[in-house]
Write a structure and sequence with these properties.
The chain has 211 residues and is mainly beta. 2% of the residues lie in helices and 41% in strands. The termini are far apart. It has one domain.
């Protein structure tokens, strides 16, 4: 069970999220339309490989409208478009947040928002186990990307949260990439993230050979 943020426990305690127990950004059935999130799965022991060439390119996060189960209720998510992920063949990742829109989520009848700021930097590696594919993100020392969460009054819920390392189940095909974090520690970690190739004003093409 995890809180949205570590601050303001009295306000946030009713919005605790159960860490999804098996497959999750589990991108096995993802899309911009409203869907129930797949269950989270810890990545099995698999040899981490060089980055999947399908991921190499420039990708833009699209707006989401999703539901994700939490205890006996569902959290609804919307928004979040505009972040741009640039992934190179040497596994380096840059995340541009300047055009990112806020994510709005509703739980137990109350509305919360989250925004991102700064620039994400780090490395990716990938592995596969059966039909599932996993990615692993490690932020670098110069990663300045932070997530800020707010309650319905606009008050920030604790300090900004810096990027942390994570694993995710992902899917990739020409022009489309999705991921769902394997461990969900905050409400804002719950939704499936869907990205399309390009960055809005231009459209460099991701590798046409998904692995």
């Amino acid at each position: 069970m995890k809180h949205l943020t570590h601050a303001r426990p009295a306000m946030v305690s009713r919005f605790m999220v159960a860490a999804l127990a098996s497959a999750s950004v589990a991108l096995a059935a993802c899309g911009p339309s409203s869907t129930a999130s797949p269950s989270a799965t810890s990545a099995p022991s698999a040899t981490t490989a060089a980055i999947d060439p399908c991921l190499v390119g420039t990708w833009m996060v699209v707006g989401q409208t999703q539901n994700s189960p939490a205890n006996d209720e569902e959290i609804t998510y919307s928004g979040g478009a505009g972040e741009v992920f640039t992934i190179d063949a040497n596994s380096a990742v840059t995340i541009d947040t300047h055009a990112a829109q806020k994510v709005v989520f509703v739980s137990a009848g109350q509305t919360f928002t989250a925004t991102v700021a700064g620039t994400g930097r780090g490395t990716l590696s990938t592995s596969a186990s059966g039909t599932k594919r996993f990615l692993y993100f490690t932020p670098s020392a110069d990663d300045t990307r932070t997530t800020h969460s707010f309650d319905s009054t606009g008050a920030e819920l604790g300090p900004a949260r810096p990027d942390t390392a994570f694993s995710a189940v992902y899917t990739c095909a020409p022009g489309r990439f999705t991921f769902y974090k394997s461990a969900v520690n905050y409400m804002v970690d719950g939704p499936i993230v869907t990205l399309t190739s390009g960055k809005g004003d231009s459209s460099p093409t991701a590798s046409a050979n998904p692995s």
